[in-house]
Amino acid sequence: MARYFNGKEVELLAPAGTFDIFKEVIDANCDAVYFGGPSLNMRMMRKGYNLSYEEVKEAVQMAHDRGKRAYITVNNLLNEEDLEEAKRYFAFLNEVGPDAIIAQDLAVFPLIQEMNYKNIPVHSSVMMNVHNLEMIEAVKAMGVTRVVASREMDLKTAEILQAKSGMEFEYFVHGDMCTVHGANCLYSSMLFGNSANRGRCMKPCRWDYRVKKDGNVYPTEYPLAAKDMNMYEHIPELIKSGITSFKIEGRMRDTEFLLMVVNAYGEAIDRYLADPLSYNREEGSDTLYENRKRDFTTAYAFGKPGLDFINRRYEGTGKFYSTGKVFSTPTAERELKEERVLQVKESLQQAKRKEPAASVPEITVHVNNIEQARAALEEGASTIYLTGDVFQPDRPFGRQDIEMLTSEKGKANIILGMPRMMNELHMEQYHHFLTEGKKHHNYGLDGLLVSNIGAMHKFRPFDLPMIADFNLNIYNHLSASFYKNHFGISRMLPSLELPLQDLTKLLQHSELPVEMIVHGSPIVMYLEHDLYANARELEPIAKEDNQYVDNRHLVLLTDKGENPVYRDATGRNHLALAKELCFMPFLKELHAAGVNHFRIEGKTYATEELRMIVRLYRQAAENLEQCDKLFEDMKPLYAGYTLGALQFGHALQLELTQV
Fold it and tell me: Which residues cross the membrane (predicted)?
């Protein structure tokens, strides 16, 4: 089955969560179905869902018998244990011959290439967050045949990128959305030990928050709870943009609901292909509206949606559609406890390297302005990362700032960072800046902190060492090696989502030098959605100052505390932990396991506060035996200390009832 408009293929892609649902959906008015097998996919939370090996085999055959396509989700981040399962799974899939797998973790590429599997085409998952031309060219070189576009990509951008790259595009047209950039929500891991990037999200985005800013409290209800996508009335624009595959979200939805949605879209596409001149966009739209689970949005398809992106119906509270039960309730980050520190130390000892690491580990600091950079240099930091996402009211680092700092750096390194998400304008700006820099000894820069594979692909020819930032979610040694061998990465920060046992195993196996964030409040939600609009467009309901950060910064307030949200120079929002990460008590064990660079997330501290923190960690690095004593002398500047995802794993793994 295939549909075409002016020679362009149009594929309607439907979801299926179980084999019984698949058997119904495959005969609906769609061209392809995607589903998960028994492991390694992002819908493993719900008992009884996904297909067995035999069901996967039968499903692929059923699809092909009908002239349709079958895509299999292998879209989890993979830990070290998963790599062995993946080898077995890929051998099976190579025999079964699906039309493609949908993948997130870069480890899938060496796994497939190592065994020379010819029957496993790869589509990049939305969790790869492909959002610029260089990323498309990079994944094309890796063997990807289709990209699932970033949820924040508008149709005009998709049309331009598709035309320039020739790559097939898949685009979400209906169903559950997320306010956070793909693979850039780490909050569920920090609170529950359940990774959103491994299909176990506990939906903290659908809690009831209040917004505070400038001493005012605003009645926001659910400020992060996105509406459901609905592009039903915009099929002509989707086709014009060059989108090949119209993707319906819903692997957790029931049969009746899916058949209603799939057949509605299929019939509308057929009507448009049969007679585009008299096509009625609204015909059939009322059925979708009357059976909606949340209110509808076109999200970023036609530009930033603003507060209209946020749902106001009761499902915004984070309830499962099928059971009505709540995903989770407001929860504070766990406090750092002595018992857990001892368990972390014991686990890390298993990763102790036979060959000693560098005699003195280095302190690196991520800064937001020149004052912070100078303070960190004066206190002995070996590396300064100049952020690419500068929080307001500071302004982005420019050439004059960089040359001033590099002239003062002494033996330290100054590394230029980049925004996490880089559009075509960002790419042009950085490319011009670095090209001009060749005439001026790279402005004294010592490397680049890279946050997306498009930047790695484009800027590798400049021969500046590249360090892979934590948001790349490197979870296993195979993906780490792939970054090293394919992109030339010289050092990496592993995923912040790694629970204790997975971090230990990565440290045991990684050949790429490892740096770790050991202190600060890292960003756990990276949003195009502007929460600050709540304080501009709503009337306050009360007066209350922020507890830990300046009133000019917005915070999300629950009965468990408040999380600061920082707005960068481009308007993007960055939600931080309420508590500070602090790994001071086990720096010795991390160093023995091969971690030679300890990073401080310094962007949100006042300059003198940052100076004190860098000084303490510099003292610790020079004598790792005194870490416990130094920790006793430290007082948290925010709501307390936490170990983040290292709170979880082994004895303290949080047990959650499956819904």
Answer: none
